[in-house]
């Protein structure tokens, strides 16, 4: 599994990204953040080889962001988390349904129980 973290900055209408803490100095630039994310994903795939890809892009300020591309790793946590539930033999599903039913049966609190009313 390879993790690529990029520091992204906007200057003069162009977005530039530079890899943070990596072996290779990967860089890309583009006019839009969407296009820049695609370029960064392709750069990471080229550097790491093939595999499942997960990417994220988070604006920190209106002119700076952090982008991360993960290559490899077997498909992410969501599919790994759902696999044990599917192989449990169905024993957990009825228990989960019973818990939902119990929560529905709980009495809803009214304003009178709190000692005040919304329209007082």
Automatic annotation (TrEMBL):
Keywords: Ribonucleoprotein, Ribosomal protein
Keyword Transcription attached: no
Pfam families cross-referenced by the UniProt entry: Ribosomal_60s
InterPro entries for the chain: Ribosomal_P1/P2, RPP3
Compositionally biased intervals (Basic and acidic residues): 96-106
HAMAP family: Ribosomal_L12_arch
Protein's name according to its UniProt entry: 60S acidic ribosomal protein P3
Similarity annotation: Belongs to the eukaryotic ribosomal protein P1/P2 family.
PANTHER family attached to this UniProt entry: 60S ACIDIC RIBOSOMAL PROTEIN P3-1-RELATED, LARGE RIBOSOMAL SUBUNIT PROTEIN P3Y-RELATED
Function as written in the Swiss-Prot or TrEMBL entry: Plays an important role in the elongation step of protein synthesis.
GO molecular-function terms, A-Z: structural constituent of ribosome
Region (Disordered): 79-120
Gene Ontology terms: biological process: translational elongation
Species this chain originates from: Ceratodon purpureus (Fire moss)
UniProt keyword Ribosomal protein present: yes
Single GO cellular component term: ribonucleoprotein complex
